[in-house]
Specification:
It contains three helices and three strands. The chain is α+β, with helices and mostly antiparallel strands and about 120 residues long.
Length: about 120
């Protein structure tokens, strides 16, 4: 994917994946790619949501799910400088933020929630 066209966001806004969209793809390759993205998302919180979405379909991946992985890779090409930087902010204040998407999954109407916690101005969870 070195010659791919970069994109500005890791997922398309307002897009919802379904479990059986597209043709089935190789499960092993899909799981290998998602595993690498999960590892990378520890230092790249900007892709964490997109990776969690494609992670939901590891048991039965289809071409539409693989397209999202390719979009994440295209986003990473466009933004190589983004990532977690730990620096001194001269305080140890703890701050937490949370968000939820109530019944946002079109397959089973489950909710998705996420949170982040900063200690001393640095992202820790």
């Amino acid at each position: 994917m070195l010659g791919c066209k970069p994109v500005e966001t890791p997922v398309e806004p307002n897009s919802h994946l379904r479990s059986k969209d597209g043709e089935p793809v190789d499960k092993g390759s899909y799981q290998w790619l998602v595993g690498r993205l999960i590892y990378l998302s520890h230092t790249r919180p900007d892709i964490a949501f997109a990776v969690s979405v494609v992670n939901q379909y590891m048991h039965d991946p289809h071409s539409s799910h693989l397209d999202v992985i390719y979009r994440i890779l295209r986003y990473l090409k466009a933004a190589p400088e983004k990532g977690v930087l730990f620096s001194s902010h001269n305080h140890l204040r703890i701050e937490s933020f949370t968000d939820a998407d109530w019944a946002g999954c079109p397959d089973d109407w489950r909710s998705t929630s996420r949170y982040c916690t900063f200690v001393g101005g640095n992202l820790v969870t």
